[in-house]
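BUG: 3D viewer hangs when loading the predicted structure for this chain

Environment: internal workstation, default settings.
Expected: structure renders.
Actual: progress bar stalls at 90%.

Input used:
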Amino acid sequence: MPQHYKSVKHLAYRYRLPALMRCFSVFPLFFLIIVLLVSADLTAQNKQTIVARFLPETKTINIQQEISFHNRSSDTLNAIYLTDWNNAYSGKNTALAKRFGEEFNKSLHLAKNKVRGSTKVISIVDKNFTPIGWQRMDSKDIIRVQLNFPVYPGDDFLLKLSYSVKIPSAEFTRYGYEENGNFKLRYWYITPAVYNDDWVLYSNKDLDDLYTDKTDYEIVFNYPEGYVLNTDLNLKESKNIDHLQQAVLTGKDRNDIKLYLEKKNSFTTYTNTNLSLITNIVSKDLSEEVKTLTTDRIIHFIYDNLGKYPHSRLLVTETEYRKTPLYGLNQLPAFLRPFPEEFQYEMKLLKTALNNYLENTLFLDTRKDKWIADAIQTYLMIKYVETFYPDIKLMGKLSDIWLVRSFHLAKKGFNEQYPLMFMLMASKNIDQAIATPKDELIKFNEKIAGKYKAGLGLVYLENYLGDGSIPKKIKGFYNNYRLEYVNARDFEKNLKTDTPKNIDWFFDEYVSTRHKIDFTIKKVKKTEDSIFVTIKNKRRTNVPVSLFGVRNDTVLSKYWFENIVGEKTFRIPNNNEKRLVLNYDKIIPEFNQRDNWKSLNGFFSQNRRLKFRFFKDAENPYYNQVFYVPTATYNYYDGVVAGMRLHNKALTAKPFLYDLTPSYGTKEKALVGSGLIAYRNYLDQGNLYLATFSVSGSSYHYAKDLRYSTITPAISLGFRTDDFRSNKRESLTFRFINVIREKDETINTDDTDPDYSVFNTRYSYSNNGIINHFSWFTDFQLANNFSKLSFDLEFRKLYQNNRQLNVRLFAGKFIYNDTSSDYFSFALDRPTDYLFDFGYLGRSETTGILSQEIIIAEGGFKSKFEDPYANNWMITTNASFNIWKWVELYGDIGWLKSKREPGRFVYDSGIRLNLVTDYFELYFPLYSNNGWEIAQPRYDQKIRFIVTLQPKTLVKLFTRKWF
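Structure tokens produced before the viewer hung:
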């Protein structure tokens, strides 16, 4: 082969490569003549050469690629693994599709093939053009290449690949093609996985954490005229060939290549003495002059706090920002946002620039050790606000509105959002250790809480050391490991070097565990010149704690105490403080701050005063907050129920809570309402994570002029697996329901006692997902005159042909039954709800629209029957499947038996409009034991519906993917 064929550059320009790459049909000749070859000299790190032809009409990229893989390990390798993340969009069983399903997103599962991405590998050969065996792993986005000859330590191996990439729609992960004709390319080419003692094989899970070795790139990218290409690679040469644009791009010591092709350029380049920042971060109302000054300030801030960026260009995009935005008030619609436009633009640009700055230069294990970059990013964002916006509030200009400014939340500074967001998860016992791999984190922890806790940890460490060394250590760490392979041990070693205090606790407790931090001042004793203070560690998490001496909101003294396991007494000077407060500056992300202070002015000054707040607020540890909010609900008998809800549920959950709603029913013109008092004990160890002890009650009307009241003490135990992302949940509940009813003899002609008590225990299991849903429970009830046992199972599956099958099974049996009415009997279509668990709009109605409301329980039938009850046993099955989108066919069958009556077989069928599963559904009966119902009179009264009006229930539709 002529020597000049070995130069990609020579081939690209001399043989007008774009014209030859228009198809692969002449592949043998094409591969022999046009295949990419690099020079024989191989370097001591990976090198890739790519010649690509971009075809926007078919949304494909034809690629010829050479990979020079350097074995930097001490092992001999007989196989090499390649990551092909673009192929993660190709099917419904990839790791990416499964991840979407876990987060209740079925877009990729339901996608048509034309919007999916995929990679068609044509050949993989070695430097001698000898074919190499390869196969895709089960995840579909990792390729195993079986080598013909081993690669010894320190050796290089040359792979030549020919393949075609089909670009996915950007609707899935924001990367891919957009309807406006623009293309955002990331993970668009095949690249080797990393070998660290073993192969580190990570699939695409929409975490933007591709882990690659340090690589030198040369890319010849050919694309049609009319497109503008933006990237942070160096543009070595650009020319037009046969109505195509050809860009020769180079990059040294890179890990990830992003290309943006747009028909109308949205990017602006800002250049100062340090680097060129290319961005399309959106800000409509700012002048270019302001943007230039803002960008310059951000670049200088990053340079001053980290160090020199080793590349000349930094790409910062709106797409990357939107994937991990500044969560909070700034995400409100533009006309409601409480922050100045300049501040919002600055923080958006800062956050994304910091992320890319670190991501492009620190060769971390991006899935296992990403918390290091997150910690530095969040820490520097906190420092930026302290430096340039020290007075900005968490609620921005809303803090000045007279209705809002009295809120404790309105008084918080912008940086106080970080502990608040972390405590939101910790208070619900769903926080995770920040060293947890990214793909094992709950979405809220991965996107928000984990990052915030990591950054707060560096602030905590900085305050504990008190010598100003943390900023220097962060900068030193970055400069020592910039463009080097680095891990958590290197970061730990860096922070511990020349540290005056022992900081093992930071890595052993704060980073590596989810142990809560919780201290309290047990007691104080004051003498003329000293104060003896006893501090109790309530969680035995061995970390240091700060103690402040305060007088009239002025800090007079500050101390750090450590190694408190259990209780420990310390002596401090008496400086005439009025209060001693633990963690006064709230630097420590502490679980409970309500018991952090002691007054030195006597017992009665210890009491916290009541403070009433409208709606809901952040917790103020110095007051007993009572929140109030007007409420309005509806039921047929009470009419519009207007009330005032009184509760103590702050933004972060508390162990003890009360929730009382005294109300007035406009139709009955009577007082009604409900209430709950509960204690929740969150447990950190084992699968039992929550124990709740509660007493609840309610009083409404269940028919005209007939009131019912309930009082229910209960104990509930919650179980989960060690995998917090799993939707598996188990619960065991014991409760004693006491019902007090007014009885109208003209309505209730039986001898059922209007007042009764039922002991109920239920074990529930659920594994609910958008693709697969499986749940069941077994329920036992015991009362004076009956005892019953039931079993309820529900299964839903969305198949790969986009058909959904729903199956439900119910079986119930009375152990004994001495009742003479059907009030406690099993019901086919509409349970009597004698435990008052269901939110019927008109629970006693037998005619009219409200009698058509259905709650799928017990029999689960949709047709109405003359005798729908069974006082002995009942077995039913409900099934449905979709025939078009949310239109389904349903069918129910069942067997039921009452005492002294023969058993009966029942069935019904019809059409279900499954608009929002379990929240809004319509049922149209067709055929049943009653005959052809659609042909019978008054068919409109046979239509059944499910509707959910509870705001708390509806909110779960939007929050379930986060928790």
